[in-house]
Design goal:
Protein name: Protein ste16
Distance between the termini: 103 Å
Mean pLDDT: 77
Strand content: under 5%
GO cellular component, one term: TORC2 complex
Structural class: mainly alpha
Low-confidence stretches: 1-32, 63-95, 119-140, 453-478, 583-596, 953-965, 1229-1300
Family: Belongs to the RICTOR family.
Pfam family, one: RasGEF_N_2
InterPro entries: ARM-like, ARM-type_fold, Pianissimo_fam, Pianissimo_N, Rictor_IV, RICTOR_M, RICTOR_V
Shape: globular
Length: 1300
Amino acid sequence: MPRFPLVVSLRNGCNHRECSYTCLVSVISYILKDALRSQVESELATAKKKMQVIQKSMESVSGRSTRKRSIDTGSGKRKFTGQPLQSTPGWKEGSERDDFRSAMHQANSAIKSLLLLSRQQSYGQSSSSAASPSTSPSTSTLPNPATATDAELSRARIENMAKLIALLQRNLRVRYELDVGEVVHAVLPSLGDKATKQARATAYRLIRHTLVDSHSVRRLGEQNLDWYIVKSLSRDNKHTVEKEQVIKLIRTVVDIGSERHSSRSAIGSGTVPLSDAVMRALIAVAEYPEDPFKPICVQTLTEILLIDIELMARTGGIRVLLHALSEGPMEMAPLLSAAFLHIVDSPKTRAYLHPGTDLEIALSGITDAYGRGFEHNEKIKGCTRIVSSMLRTWSGLMYCCINDMMAIRAVIDCLRIPSLETREVILDMFFDLLNIKPPEWHRAFIDGRRLTTYRKSRQSADLAQPPQIPHRHHQQDTLKLTDQYIALLILVFSKAGLLDALTSMFEESSVGSALSRKATLLMAEILQKANRVLPLSIAAKIQALPRVFSLASDYDENEHRIVGSSALSAIDSFNRYQSRSEPAVKGDTRPRANSIEDAVRRGQRQVEQTKLKQSMQMDDKTFQTLLPETQVMFTKDHTKWNFETLQDLIDGPLHNAKRMEEAIKASRYIRKLMSFFHPFNHRFADLPNTKSNHRWVRLGCALLNALMASSDGIRFLQEDEFLGQLVKSFAQLDPMTPTPVPDPIFSKKRVQETLTAGYFEMFGTMSKRQEGIELLEKFKLFTAFYHLTELRSREDLTKGIIENLDYSIDGHSRIVLSKALTSVYKHIRHYATNYLGGLIRGSQTANAWMLRLLLTQLYDPAPEVRELAVRFLEEACESTDVLQTVVEMQPTLDHLGEVGHPLLLKFTSTPTGFRFLYAAGYIDREMESWFHERNLHYVVHIEVFLAKAFSQNASDEDDDDVLAFEGIVPPHFYGVMAKTELGCEVLQEKGHFAEFAHFIRRHGLESEDSEVILKLKSVLWAVGNIGATERGLPFLEEEEIIPAILEIAEQSLVLSVRGTCFFVLGLISSTPQGAEILDDYRWEATLSPLGLPTGLCVPVDVDKFVSIPHWDCVASEAVDDSRLAPPESDEEIEVMTAIYNLANTVIANAASRSLTKMKSKPEYRHIFSSPSMFYRALHTISSQKYKLPVRRYIFDLFNVDLDVDVIKQLSECSMSLRVPLTAQEQEAAEPSEPSPVDVQSPPPPPPPPLPPFRPMPVRHAVAVGDSDEESDGEEKEVTAKKPRAPVMSLRPKSRIIGFS
């Protein structure tokens, strides 16, 4: 029944009568009588009541009003910034809203349940009085706090926290809605000492899941959790579940709450929201070798080091990481070394390290190996890996060169110790560092065997191998960026005495040993590599080997002469054998006439040609004798045939037209032999596919060659059933055939298991001759091939056809290949593209039809096929002829995006391609893109690939990426433009080079702004690539920018910028004019034997390039606000003195015995239960270095259990015991000179807000140097001033003894 039937009927009636509005109003007022009005009012009243009931139930469910009042105005509701919640299909918006409301209701109920479970009476009473079934529906299932046991309460807390954690994991939005302070308040009883370790672990886990952003971390920092965390980190290994969760919480705080400063600031200048107390507790775990959480704590400290190095320096974390780098765990060594090398790169962060002592601790595994024996081998291997990683970076190499290369000399000098058994590991390190891959015969060299015997055993095996398809590589004289760095390493090592140390190893014994011969091999390899990568004048000094020659010419000491002569003889033998074993130029596709292998092969070919001529001139009698000897005329069993005679017959006499005619017509010999290969005879086609049976395939191919060599043979093939049966065999595969065959000849199983696949080789033999192609066309075999390429799941047939057909003759063969290239199936197209790329790579000249087909693949719908085609085309375009041919075809490459970028750069390097791309607007677009953005990407690209090329695991991981880079400078757009005259004109017109030069002069010595440094590197690479071309070098001369680059290379404080300049100067030396200019500035270029520059350049004065200005290690000093009022009684002073002495490892045992005695005496017992004394102890371990067992002992010393009340008392003690400094003391405490690194303005007078995880309201820096190592506990700083009471500082004075 409708609610207002009269209104509805009136509306309908009025529509019929078309009455006016006033008439309608009058009618309604007339009809609505009192009865109807009262009915409507009653329905409205009922609806209002229902709405009130719903509203009350919603308020009781959400409980938001009470919760919002408890949150102060400073911690307002956060905006949800997470991922948008994905709606389940079929849900409506209202159901999503209801789901979130129910989740919030469950979360609030869980929090209220946790609050209710508190054992404290006052809180328990207030909770029970406030709770009601309507507001807390789950309270009926909770145990009564007044009567329940501790185990029941703990179990209930854990269950509630676990439910809340599961809820937060399912609903991300709930995390943003919950207040962290309220959650922490609810779980505080579970963090106390009286709770179980499982309860504490679950509480930490719950707190971690509530952290979603920096705001939540700040709210967490206001809750005074520091001492709970410090206590948890100090527990023993029985509480691993608790320590695991607290470490995860700390890592989450570091990850979410750290304030990483803008990209313009240096590395390590951010802020990590961890207090000194928590940091020192974490550091204690990281340096304790027996703690299972040591590795993850070391990793966490490494991450903090890269964010907030000042915090790490203040709390002694840098020292712990340096010890971990030396002592292990070894799996953390690559991470630690990479972090410290990153720190060393910038002068601002480098100042936190002591030059010459800190990073050198990584070498201790090598330098301290004397007398340790072979059991120390693994540690030395790990240490050599660290040293290699250091010396393969600019920061590591230049750091090791300070103090006259003291660190490198220390490692090299270890080779001079005769009794050091582990010297072979050090030799292997130098092989690896210089990228020396010992030849496969190096073991024979080390064992002292003659290399000629090895040569003879290898020669026959090498000749037996078939020639490989050559790859188009860069010429051998095109050296790489890695070679330029290795040239610098050879200079540094030779200057540090490596060759002298190797000579000392020769002198140990005149007889020689495997170790001394390995040293000889290293010396020979260094000399050979120096001859290749260093300028002649510098390499000659290294090649001189004055000490070895003086030994060889010492006629007073027979032993010296034997040692020197043997070393020189071994080096000469190595060089001669190396030159003999590698005669061919790598990547040269032309067979060399002067190689030993070629002479042998040429002789073999002459013998074969002579035999063929003799056999073709065979007389009638001999020929008639050979035919019956093959047994073909007498039996169909091929196993009884004389295969050798048959092969000689086909390869020789049957190539004579007269003999072929006789074999076909007179004796019907060929017909019987050919019937063996007929598919339907199931003789050849049923032979198993074994290696021995493949001789019958070769015989069939030779027979077809002989037949096609004469007109009678061609006529025989036209009349024979061989080709006709093959066509019928392919027709059996047609899915539309009316009579399907159960086992077709070319079934997948038969192609894999029998010689049926050999028919494809026979097709390939026929396709090599014009006569064969005509036969294949006549029998419509090409039509069958077209149909085969369309068969689904028979890619084996398509591959067999494509692989075996010959494409030298234009015709159907190439059409078959193009049809496979455009197949419906992606895997067929991918395979055909790959095969086409191999054809192009193996061809000697640029075949236009191949390139046209490959260009077609650039428009393939599959991105994998397009990328493969681009890669092959890019490789082919290394040849100038191929590049010119491709450019003339004018392909459109815009659709390829980033994949086609290298190809477009190659087009830009030719005049024709540049004009084509300039007309298409590509040049202007790319210039703007490179000027503003891609220059920076280029820097990242080249630095990442250089790091991979130098990394230890380059051979194990990312092989494709490293091979794609090949160490050669990637093409740069500005460098490619400068190769053409029109490109230089456009570059001059745009004025980009002038802007580059201005930027280099203005910001060349920038050392702090990381954005400017990155842009500086990009500009340097751009200038270097332009200067690497003959047309681009005048730009550098006009702007006189080369002296500015040299100044940056020798004076920049950022070491990676120096390295960039080193490579850029190598690029500039790529032209004869550039090499001549650099020679005037004492940078010498490496030349090829023909006198052409190779693109390598090294400084004549290497010390000037690798030297770093000396710096003083600075500590961030600030006002010490950690001074506390002195203890009130002598007993308290004695206890605190003993606790101070625990930090001193020399008197720690005596101090612990004193504390044990004090605790047993009645007059001292109240001290160990005093919250104020407990706070003094906590403050001490939070500002001094204490080992983990000592920290645990101090906690166990006091009979104070951490809970909510104790934490409150500790907070009060932190305020009441602290004594502020006077103005005079503050002025005296300030550093007299500003720090050369940390240039900060003095702190403002008002204290900053509470940082997270800090019990103290202000966090100031405290100087921590070597005093963290040991502190003299008996000396305490007691300041007695007349205007006020004496004050005692928790930090004792310390003196460093034995060091300057």
